[in-house]
Amino acid sequence: MRIGLYHRNGCRWRDLQQSFPVCKNRLILRQIYKQMNVQKKELSPLHILVNIELTKDDYAGKVEKELKEYRKKAVIPGFRKGKAPMGLIKKQYETTLIVHEVNELVQEALRDFIEKEKIEYLGEPLPADSDFDLEKNVLSFGYEFGLIPEFEIDLDTRGEVVLYDLKIDKKTWDKEVMHLRNHYGTYEPAEEISEDSKVSGHFEFEYKDEKQKKEAEFHIRDLTPEAKKKFLGKKTGAVLEYTSGSLFAEPHTLMHVLQIDRDDVHHFDVPLTFTVSGIHDLTPAEMNEEFFKKATGDDTVTDEKTFRERFTGTLTAEYKRFTDQKFFDDMISYITGHTSFDLPEAFLKKWMKKMSFGKGELKEDALDLLYEDSVDGLRYQLIENKILQENGLDVTNDMIFEQIKANFKSLYKKYGVEEPAEEILDKVAKEYITDSNNKQELDDVYERIKNDRLLTFFKEKAVYKTQKIEAKEFFDMLREIAKKK
Predict the structure, then answer these.
(1) Are strands 2-3 and 121-127 parallel, antiparallel or unpaired?
(2) What are the pLDDT digits (tens) for 255-287?
(3) 380: burial class by Cβ within 10 Å (0-12, 13-18, 19+)?
(4) Which residue ranges make up each domain of the chain?
(5) Which pTM value belongs to this model?
(6) How far apart are alpha carbons 435 and 439 in whole angstroms?
């Protein structure tokens, strides 16, 4: 078995797009009828050299047979078809046929050896010293392998990993409902600027050595705390002076409002004035039948009791995504941090150096840096692969196919389009999968299915703590974790 260093060990999308049946990720071996001399030598732990020797007797018969076939079909000026001298045929074709046949025999021998010895390796075999002198009776070919290490995974986290069960307290529920009411609310004219205001007007400033006058509309909540103080309480007609770099909390807001180039936004800090021409305050939607229907997307929800039940269920499912994600991340972090094994460093650096061809020669320090940047990802890949394979969690093409169909069904429903017949949906999904332009989207689908299967496995098989927690406390904890990163 082989594990690619930069790709997951499983069905490759190119295999899927070419053939569509479930790919098996295994070598298809052909029987080798002649026993060649194949030797294995350990260069260091997890790093071996496989040497293959073959003699002229191994390939001469097949080459001679091919030459006779070539002679029968050859059309050479000065000779009738099939009557050209064998010496002339050999001169033109023998070397090419020998190279082809030797390559076939070496590859067959290598595959057979891998199968018999049950060699599990990383990346690809690297060609080593070889002797391919056709004048000699014995040819030799060497290949280096980096072996996959053996290791065990302990799923007992000893209480270090927690699966949280969120309680939606009244304050959190009210806050989420208010977000919905604001979303479906309306903006009404107001006398002065408040925290909830949407303000319109025009900015005057200098950009690229030219005076600018830009009409703009923005929410007061998007300003920095200092800028808010400047705006709050002002009325229509007010002229405010400020600096662009301290105006908005997020650079992308400044970019869109002032219509400046992305490359300039992070160092754009000039004096400007803003003239207020309109002030509108948000009026949240009333808790009535119209709001209940809009908020749930269901015309049957017409009263507050049903809305509360429906929205609580939606909110619980939404929050569960956050608790599941934290549990998943913590499990991965714990497992990778508590699973140790060595890697064939010398081989991997050789492999990386080979894979960098066309990008210039890698110097030793650059190679060391590349290895350090890659080694954690490789360790996780090996751990993940072991969990998937040993527990039957591999993602199949059928799973991906069904998920693509489900995605299309969701789109049809979202845009109010009638769902097509099953055979048409199958055709649409298959065309989507076989379109090479969708590779990234298919990879994303694979990752989601794989992570969902891993999450379920961790919940069922790992040893961890469960803990009830209020939603506010949980999200405060996530914010603190984000600050430390």
Answers:
(1) parallel
(2) 999 999 988 988 899 999 999 999 999 999 999
(3) middle
(4) 31-147, 187-283, 305-484
(5) 0.72
(6) 8
- 31-147 CATH fold: Alpha-Beta Plaits (3.30.70)
Please tell me the CATH code under which domain 305-484 is placed.
1.10.3120
> Do 305-484 and 187-283 fall under one CATH topology?
no
Fold assignment, 187-283: Chitinase A; domain 3 (3.10.50)
Alpha helix segments (H runs only) across 52-204: 56-73, 86-117, 170-183
CB 265 within 8 A of CB 252: yes
- CA-nearest of 470, 474, 444 to 327 is 474
Which tens digit of pLDDT belongs to each residue from 391-406? Answer: 999 999 999 999 999 9
Structure tokens at 229: 């103080």
Q: How many residues does the chain have?
A: 485
Encoding tokens for residue 218? 């923005």
Structure tokens at 300: 């049957």
The amino acid occupying position 380 is: Y
Q: Are 264 and 224 in contact (CB under 8 A)?
A: no
Q: Cα(389)–Cα(25) distance, rounded to whole angstroms?
A: 11
What residue type is 341 in one-letter code? F
Residue 29 DSSP symbol: -
